[in-house]
Amino acid sequence: MGGHAEDSGRVYQSTRDQHINEYHYHGDENPGLNGPDSVRRPAVGRAPVILRDRAEVLERLRMSTADGGGGQAFVLHGMGGCGKTAVAYSFFQFVTEGSDRVGLWVNASDRASLRSGMLAVASDRGATDGELLAARNGLRPGADLVWEYLNSSAEPWLLVLDNADDPEILREGSWLRTSPVGIVVVTTRRAAARWWPGAELQHIGVLPREDAAQLLCDLAPDSGTLDQAAEIADRLGRLPLALTLAGGFLSHQVLDPWTMDAYRLHLEVGERVELIDQGADILSDEDPRHLVGRTWQLTLDAFEERGLSEAVTLLRLLARFASEPLPLSLLNQTEIASVLPRARTESALRALLDQSLTELVDVSGVRCVQSHGVLLDSVASATPPESLSRLNSTATRLLDAAIPKLPDAGPEEPRLRLLGPHAVALLRRGVAPETTEDLVGIANRLATALHRTGDYLSAWENSRSIVEISEPVLGPENRLVLAARSRGGRGLFRLGKYDEAEMLLREVRSSQEQLFGACDPDTLDSGHGLQMVLGNLGKREEALSLLRTVIAGRRSALGDAHPLTLRSQSSLLTMLSASEVEAEDNSALLSLPLACERRLGPDHTITLGARHNHSWTLYVLGRFTEANEQIQQVAETYERRFGPDYPNAISAQQLYARIQYKLGNFEAAVELMHDVLEKRRNSLGTDHPFTAASRKLLAEFDSRGKAL
């Protein structure tokens, strides 16, 4: 009773046994570049305890490293659960422990994971933060950057692209290449040679009977004999994933341990559950894939018998999402109570972890849970139909609660990017039309949030995927589908694809105007996006006319004080010439920042944008001293809130350079513009229109400075 704690200490008192689990995370809440914490260690969760068979393929891989060899690519292919990753892991360990070769490991299961992992590889090989930011946002070719640094690496390397089950992802960005400096190993379910030109294909199949039996005995040594294990292995098709799950089940039974004979009998009399293994070819009529479902079903039956039905429910809920890392914070919300008590979520998750049905992973400081895609597919296919509606609606509400209701500009948030694949996966599971509408609205909000943090590529890809899935269900004239297409157009604009953005936004705005009216908020939103594209394409008169239409429409539909109305009015400040500004109602136009501050507050993003645009107007009017003072404050605020490489921060710095030049500070102006150009090259790429404009402005400063 005399115990005490100080600072962050804790005292626990109990009259009986007590088990306490605590999790702490210490670090930067806004890590700079989003990606895996390490590419130097295989991201496999639990390493294989022992590798059975596979000696021939491992020897072939090891031979490729002789005499510092390079320039080779190997593709380990086979159906899900055959142990392709285990082979790659063993080779990775051999390479990194027995030579001076650097090992690099990337999860290639989806676009986001592949891109973040490959950019982390570039970072490991020496790429700068600015270059990584540009590639991450899709504003310069990411694959070119990565392979430039791989090719120039001072050390030989091994690059593993794990779970590359969609080869189109690798082909789209030209991510898969070879280099004389290193060796590439790909693990995939896709075996067709056309996907892997120039690579050496190595098939990873099911285990031989003796090795399969020995693997089961390795995992559950006290459950039976080698002969009994061989019978189970035959029933499970000698698939390593099935054997691993079976071994995990047998080794974790405490109150009422099962023997291998008992397990075999349950397999023989139990109902067969089909396994969906997307991307794998049917091997034969005796294809063992359907037996994996029965393997995990025995574990779920044991959960039910032990009063852990919440673990079954939780796994079925996880199966509504993707096999990508799912932030744990998503599961720690009150909305989960519609399928299982929130207080029981921890014990349910612990049960799944103990049975190897899921694992904990860390992605850029975000703690996540991740399950094998084959397992989730089989769980999803066997979920009782009467449970689907409640599971889908719960998953939808969990996503909804995890995304900001009013997305604002700010530094990148790794957790948001992780949510994208799960919204898409939930739609692909085939939810009811009313849930589809809810999901599209949530996904649109997620795309907006990603866009406003500067992650334009993820925002665009999210919108594109949502449209592809939802349009056949809801129809091309659905309001939410059109809004998703409009958001995609805004993303194309930010990526520098002006012509594509103009065509898409014109089409969407026309449809919205016909369906909902010219003053509908969605129509006006597309109009605001379109006028930005037109202005940057040099179609000034059309852009200005459209912007005035949007301002009038927003005043009518939303009111003068609405943030969107104020935002559109603020945009007018950047489009008018000096004579046009003087012809306007100067008192209203030039006092717009004060109006924004009064109605929205001094720290609101729209207020900050209005002050930025107002600085431009002062510059156009020749009031350089006033403009200089204001843009300095704006630039400092941008850098403090968003970082120096945030697009608006760079834009403010460029305006600051213009003003310095007009004030006669030529050296300072040129120095500022050199920095702006370098940042835009790194963040946008050499060919982006904004980079070209900065390059032209710097050339003008240089030539005029020399003439003076």
Describe this structure in words.
By secondary structure, the protein is mainly alpha-helical. Among the domains are: 149 residues, Rossmann fold, CATH 3.40.50; 99 residues, no CATH class; 75 residues, no CATH class; 85 residues, Tetratricopeptide repeat domain (Serine Threonine Protein Phosphatase 5, Tetratricopeptide repeat, Alpha Horseshoe). 59% of the residues lie in helices and 6% in strands. The protein contains 32 helices and 8 strands. The protein has a 5-stranded parallel β-sheet. A 3-stranded antiparallel β-sheet has the order 6-8-7. Strand 3, helix 6 and strand 4 form a beta-alpha-beta unit. The protein is globular. 50% of the residues are buried. About 7% of the residues have low confidence.
Structural class: mainly alpha
CATH topology of the domain at 55-203: Rossmann fold
Poorly predicted parts: 4-8, 14-33, 270-291
- How confident overall, as mean pLDDT? 84
The share of residues in helices is: 55-70%
Biggest sheet, in brief? 5 strands, parallel
* Number of H- or I-type helical stretches: 32
Give the overall shape.
Answer: globular
Strand content: 5-15%
Query: Gap between N and C termini, in Å?
Result: 83 Å
What's the architecture of the domain at 55-203 in CATH terms? 3-Layer(aba) Sandwich
Q: If strands are numbered along the chain, what order do they take across the biggest sheet?
A: 2-3-4-1-5
Can you identify the CATH class of the domain at 55-203? Answer: Alpha Beta
Rg from Cα? 29 Å
Counting DSSP E segments of at least 2 residues, the number of strands comes to: 8
